[in-house]
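Provenance and format

Records in this collection were gathered into a single text stream. Each protein contributes a sequence line and a token line. The two records reproduced below are adjacent in the stream.
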Amino acid sequence: MSLMGIDVGTTGCKAVVFDEEGRQLAAAYREYPLLSPRPGWCEIDSKQVLELTRECVREACSQTDDPVKALAVSSQGEAVTPVGAGGEILSNSIVSSCPRTADLVPVWEKRFGKKELFRKTGIPVASCFTPLRLEWIRDNDRETFDRAEKFLFFEDLVIWALGLEPTTDSSEACRSMSTDIRTGQYAKDLFDSIGLDTAKLPRIEPSGTPIGKIPSAKAEEWGLPPGTVAVTGGHDQPTAALGVGVIEEGQACYGIGTVECVTSVFNEPLLSDRMLEYNLCCYNHTYPDRYVSLVYNFTGGSLFRWYRDVFGRAETRDAERTGRDVYDLLTAQIPPTPTRIFVLPQFTSTGTPYFDNHSTGALVGLSLDTTRGEIIRAVLEGITYEIAMCVDLYAEIGHPVKEFRCSGGGAKSEAWMQIKADILNAEIKVPAVSEAGCLGMAMLAGTAVGVYADLEEAVKTTVRITRSFSPTPKHAALYKENLAVYRDLYPTIKDLAHRISALR
């Protein structure tokens, strides 16, 4: 008997099968493009996402003879898909980094009050959140808004496609700025203000709640064994935190994927004015009676992928020819010591703490003797500087991060892990399973069907730390100097970046 975790991200989906000890038995991954129907806009084709997710599930199931007993779905936050009464998908889904709803932020702050919204939802209002997206659809695509029978997050979109009632979990719903953090139910007044009946949103249950057995016809279509149980999953970041065993205050999961994100755990909701000042959210963990807060950079690992696609074509060809990982071929070129080159990773909306939809990326500090390897290293450094600057905010509010555990594809790179340890000047622990989000889903699924007595047992059974990276003192000292410069980079070029953005 095995357990499956499905993850539907911003640029790719995966399905991973684990045994009861948390050992990976099979996996499949598919990538899909970000679409830009207008300059700067970002969306994905929900039909394609479902098709590729189904392919992943079928492929992963075909790789093992151990039948899947239960599954759960982790997904990107905030993005919703409109579904018609006949089950048709009505339009693409707007993803988190898309800035098209930026002008609605002051509207919502005036309508409800910035502080009042935060105290109710635990979420500082920003352009990415679901109620603002739905208002934008109402005002710019009224036909879709009126025709939609449901607006589904990707977690419950998959559940719906599996033939069950679309059901989301508390972490996904709260992260979307859609619920009252104290009651866990939809904040009806938010949706009343845009004329949307909350009955058009998915049912909410705690993470790890059994939804039902997948109907036989759907199980066959998806390559699953008869009787597979679907279980509520979670928003991708707290899901990954669960998957690396980050369940206690002071611990944090460093997720290294399309979006770079540090998920810090709290024992109770933190809704202070200082949290709001720094745009730090607070919402449900996928582990019971815990809460999480995020600091993140929307560009994140997408920046390394951008470099790969634009400047790493030779390495891409070599990787295809030799079977090696293209990112290993790129990082093999980096110098062994820190650079004095600064990359501002704001190629999309900025994320915390600025929530600036009009900034732009920058590469500063070049000279005629700058090497290609230095630029590659500077890309990795810049992404990490941004996160290090944000992590310091937790110390300022009195809840410092004491332990980092990494998840995501980037955690496979020893070169990048060492850079992160040096910049953060902290030990970075890497569990055996890099696909932590999928493992977290397998834990929830297994607990729901009695494989584990509870999630605490699931964590103890499945999470194993296999690598650890300690800071190199000399490099950490150099990075401390660099970080002081980096802190001034965005404030210094902010106005110029906005002028450049306006030219577009």
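Adjacent record:
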Amino acid sequence: MRCLITGVDGFLASHLADYLLEHERNVEIFGTIRKGADRGNITHVLNQIHLVDMDLTDAYSVNAAVHVAEPDWIFHLAGQSYVPTSWTSPHVTFEVNAIGTCHLLEAVRKNCKDAYVQIAGSSEEYGRVRPNECPITENQPLRPMSPYGVSKVAADKLGYQYARSYGLNICVTRTFNQSGPRRGDMFFDSDWCKQVALMEVDKHKKEIRHGNLDAVRDMSDARDTVKIYAAIAKKHKPTDSNVFNVCSGWGIEMSEVMELLKSMSIVEFSTAQDPNRMRPSDVPLLVGSNDKLDKYLNDVMELPYRPYAATLMDLLDYWRVRVEHP
């Protein structure tokens, strides 16, 4: 089986490559990467995958990557994934996430119409959610509150259009917050864990700088999520044309995450809000329902669930190693 993972050097994508290599027999993985990109997340599997240079904003580049890979499965995980960046570069975010997805679907239509395609959507598509609308189902109105959220809505709807217009086998996963080892330090819990790891070796002042601690997020472990991605790929058919929430189904307030981290640290620290970490508008509440996904995969697997405290500890230990052995 030939599998194409776009943005294979990314957080979720690298864990997906790990999972497929370990659990799928006779899998041949092609992973796209931007020229000059950091390969740190995939150093351990470089001799087991085929790397293909690709720029999502270049239609020719995308078509060439798909043509070379001739994939049976495509996991489209590449993109601009950091919400704050979308405020400073909204046009770039839209070009990469929306136009880039269009380039990919055109390449699929021309080269491998029978391939399964997962488009990585986001819980940020839901945007402004009222408390009485939680847990969020897939039928929830989309009210994105950031340029990133808007770009993901566009990619989501392109998937629907190409599935209906051309009969492509497309599934959109609206994935809620993910965490675990390798999570980039621009994301809140990884940033905090890195700060704590630096404190513990006396390389940082004993204070964590943070953004909005009132926000509530649905947190899952990336290593569980990639199992779900693979299970959907095995079962999905063109007639399904599904959208799935991929989430834990429960929420945690950012202040609770901070308290968990305090209990895990070997040093005491204070906290201070950093205006630079605050967004122009923030989504206060994002907690998803995974009922639809649970029913769909019921005959295949039970949804994996790793307690967030265990994930956070693994993330902290990841940064402890990185800080001591850069």
